[in-house]
Amino acid sequence: MKEIIQIRKLNKTYNPDTVPVHAVRDINLTICEGEFTAIVGPSGSGKSTLLNLLGGLDNASSGEVIIDNTNIMEMDENDLINFRLQNIGFVFQAYNLIPVLSAKENVEFIMLLQDRPKKEREERVKSLLTAVGLGDRLDSRPTELSGGQQQRVAVARALASKPKFVLADEPTANLDTQSAETLLDIMERLNKEEGMTFLFSTHDQRVVNRARRVVNLVDGSIESDIRKE
Amino acid sequence: MLPLIAWRNIWRNKLRSAVVLLAIALGIWSGIFASSLMQGVNKQRNDGIIKEQISHLQIHAPGFQDNFEVNKNIKNPEELINEIEKVKSLKAYSPRVVSGGMANTASSGAGVMINGVDPELENNTIGLSKYLVEGKFLEGAKKNPILIGQALAEKLNLKLKKKIILNFPDKNGDIVAAKFKVVGIFKTNDSRNDGLTVYVRKQELANLLGLENEIHEIGILLEEDDKAEVVAANLQTKFPEAEVKSWKAIMPGLDLANKVAVRMNYLLLLILLAAMSFGIVNTMLMAVLERVREIGMLMAVGMSRRRVFVMIMLETCFLMLLGAPLGMFIAFLSIAYLGKYGINLSQYGEGFNAAGIEPVIYPSLDFNFYLIVIMLVLVAAVLSSIYPARKAISLKPAEAIRKL
Ligand SMILES: Nc1ncnc2c1ncn2[C@@H]1O[C@H](COP(=O)(O)OP(=O)(O)O)[C@@H](O)[C@H]1O
Ligand SMILES: [Mg+2]
What we know:
The complex is a heterodimer. Chain A is of the alpha/beta class. Chain A has one domain: P-loop containing nucleotide triphosphate hydrolases (Rossmann fold, 3-Layer(aba) Sandwich), CATH 3.40.50. Chain A is built from seven helices and ten strands. In chain A, the strands form two sheets. In chain A, strands 6-7-8-3-9-10 form a six-stranded mixed sheet, sandwiched between helices. Chain A has a four-stranded antiparallel sheet with strand order 2-1-4-5, covered by helices on one side. In chain A, α4 (118-131) crosses α5 (147-160) and α5 (147-160) runs parallel beside α6. Chain A starts with a strand and ends with a strand. The model of chain A has no long low-confidence stretch (mean pLDDT 94). Helices cover 56% and strands 19% of the residues of chain B. Chain B has helices at 2-10, 14-54, 64-67, 77-85, 119-126, 150-155, 191-194, 202-209, 228-238, 247-250, 252-290, 292-301, 305-341, 351-354, 367-393, 397-402; strands at 57-60, 90-104, 109-117, 132-135, 145-149, 163-169, 175-186, 197-201, 217-222, 243-246, 343-344, 360-361. In chain B, a hairpin with a 4-residue loop joins β2 (90-104) and β3 (109-117). The longest helix of chain B has 41 residues, at 14-54. The model of chain B has no long low-confidence stretch (mean pLDDT 90). The chains are: A alpha/beta, B alpha+beta. Chain A binds chain B through residues 48, 52, 55, 57-58, 77-78, 81-82, 84-86, 90, 92-96, 98-101, 105, 108-110, 112-114, 157, 161, and chain B through 1, 5, 8-9, 12, 293-294, 297-305, 307, 396-398, 401-402, 404. The structure holds adenosine-5'-diphosphate and magnesium ion (MG).
């Protein structure tokens, strides 16, 4: 299978000069196309830090993150923003959406940033929101949607830009069980049907059970990396 | 979509935006309105001095004004008057015979400027009849009627129909004494002038001076202030032996005062805009800080810093561009209304007359001023949006999002 992310000797130390916190230690990890991977670990184990480094949202202290033959740790901030726009879909724990835009506009927005043609945007917005079960809520503002629905819009938005993979940092953390199940169903289906690579963090065992690969983080180091089947 | 997002963002905090908009509108209104008051007062004083005292143009024999010598006169005024009547923007003109002299009554005396005028032409030119408080305009006496100001009447203790003796030198240098009868008393806004200037019939004064058709002065009133320079230059080239002066040359201080007033208006406007900009910067900074997570998320998913910058800039500019026209519109209305009906300040001050200001102020403003306000507002909008927008793009997405 094609490797799309290669992580080599990645370290991240917060406040190196004052109170150093080694949030990520010497991590080596390879993510392949089509994988559905959970980064698991207790709170404070470094999941968010790792995902931020993978997504080019933060600088590593040392090591490499290679996506598409490019070490993104060497890119400057402006190039990184564009790299993220073209290559990575993001789903955060909350505050994913622009509150003044409707569901439809939120999804379209990312494609506008990519300068995609109007026709393509409109078709894709409809099909994606339908795929996440919100075909009838196109014009709802985020405040008019439930937490689960908002996360589903965020997933649709993440896929709208046709990224190489989707990073989701605790996407279900604020959801009730039912909504979390629904969101995972949708992510699983998009993974199977569209072959989209998902990398998500969680500390919820029920979510972990749905993953096909589970990477266990303890104190910033990988303790185990298990592929199911 | 950026303008749409920016527009909707403004209305997220309706109360705050409304307060800011009102503050901007009020600031712009007060700046423009204060300017219109200043310009209104100025224009009235201008009009007053030009239309009631000096006229747009004055023509004399060279040197006449140095010491008002009888013989420094315009010899054959017919040709000159013919030419004046051909001037397109001419409103009125009045030829005068002028002499400096003493006005004496039994009890006291005062120095005066005696203007010998054709009553109708003079009235058309300086509109004196509307300032008559008693009597008539050089009518009501068969011989030697005189019109005097109220200030002089009080000084000499004169009343209507009383006699007054004028002493002045004739063309041979002999002092002439002539008796005049007060037929009218005027009171303008300029009490100093009221104590100095008297009006008699032109032909009677000419006879006393020993002149025939010579005159000393022609006052010319035009339709527009700005035409004065051109007309003056034209007449001057045609009559090089005369001395043609426009109002700006006659009273340089008047033009200067206008220019100073305009500068002051701009200064006032700049100060107000600066104050407003600080308020806007503050508001937008708050709006940015409230939205740290959202802006972090936008940059995380790939919104470039340039776009974030533009978005914040648009929000700032929208606030300014909503508030400013509102203020301008209110200013326009209030100036239009008060420019017509005036603001009556007579109950507040005696000082106005002495200062040559009418007690009813009619605000007025050049249309150009609005254009300059628009330009300044645009500049202020852009300038005050820079700091909040820079603040927004300096956010680090990872840190901003961690505030979740
Ligand atoms: N900005 C930061 N400054 C200092 N320490 C941080 C910062 N962000 C995270 N940490 C620390 O790094 C460690 C890993 O945090 P994080 O990656 O958020 O873990 P997780 O997402 O698994 O809960 C924690 O000990 C946390 O306190
Ligand atoms: Mg976390």
